[in-house]
Specification:
The protein is 38% helix and 17% strand. The chain has 245 residues and is an alpha/beta fold. The chain has a single domain, classed as Rossmann fold. The strands form 2 sheets. The chain has a 6-stranded parallel sheet, with helices on both faces. Strands 5-6-7 form a 3-stranded antiparallel sheet. Helix 3 links the parallel strand 3 and strand 4 (92-98).
Length: 245
């Protein structure tokens, strides 16, 4: 059985995996979905939240696990799981990027998406410059264009400001550490947040061992949780077989 460590993206918390976790556990797997620092219910002040702090939290969870972990990152969670892989490659079965930011060595998330974000409607930068949020209507259109309305109504009050600092820090990834961890990409065809052209450009720049395509919006943990859980389990099986060869 596999331990899945599910890392959320911007604005969200570990709660966004609430429909996927029980599906994985029903098949005998373990699934963990923590809040990153300053997000969800985590009380860390946003001024203190950087990429190192996010990676520290996830790496400490991995250290407590008995066996290799399948580390899954959604959206902005992609930069966190890449940083973690550079730190603790020996603790990982593999990496899964769910329409996530797959950023090469020497670049930041901000570098990779500056032109995209500059033209994005509804983006609000806090007065102190520490975080971003979205106008509710724009957030729904960007993140949940394929998600049922009743779920969107539950989601929107739970969104929290997104710390900016982690997005501006450049990743330092090496072939010997990050590069030795197998990675898969789950691309989403109807993604209004991370358009398919961007997802594929990132994969071209940093190829993955396996790519799975889902006909969903940016948030398949709500728009297609059963399909997402099945894909994650299939990736775990694929990487386990590869590891045993």
């Amino acid at each position: 059985m596999t331990t899945f460590l599910l890392v959320h993206g911007g604005l969200h918390g570990g709660w966004c995996w609430e429909e996927v976790v029980p599906l994985l556990e029903a098949e005998g797997h373990s699934a963990l979905a923590p809040d990153l620092p300053g997000m969800g219910s985590d009380p860390t002040p946003l001024a203190e939240v950087d990429l190192k702090l996010c990676a520290d939290k996830i790496a400490s969870i991995i250290a407590d696990e008995a066996g290799p972990v399948l580390l899954v990152g959604h959206s902005m969670g992609g930069i966190t799981i890449s940083e973690v892989a550079e730190r603790v490659p020996e603790g990982l079965l593999g990496l899964v990027y769910v329409s996530a930011r797959l950023i090469p060595n020497g670049q930041s998330m901000a570098d990779a998406r500056s032109s995209e974000i500059a033209s994005r409607p509804g983006l609000i930068v806090s007065d102190d410059g520490l975080s971003t949020t979205y106008e509710p209507a724009e957030a729904a259109a960007i993140f949940y264009n394929g998600t049922p309305p009743d779920k969107i109504a539950r989601i929107m009050p739970r969104l929290t400001p997104q710390p900016i600092l982690p997005t501006t820090e450049r990743l330092r990834l090496t072939p010997e550490r990050f590069g030795r961890v197998p990675r898969a990409y789950i691309e989403c065809l109807r993604d209004n947040s991370n358009p398919l052209s961007h997802q594929r450009a990132m994969q071209d720049a940093l190829p993955c061992d396996l790519t799975i395509t889902m006909d969903n919006d940016h948030s398949p943990f709500y728009s297609a949780p059963e399909a997402l859980a099945a894909n994650l389990m299939n990736i775990a099986t694929h990487f386990s077989r590869r590891k045993s060869v």
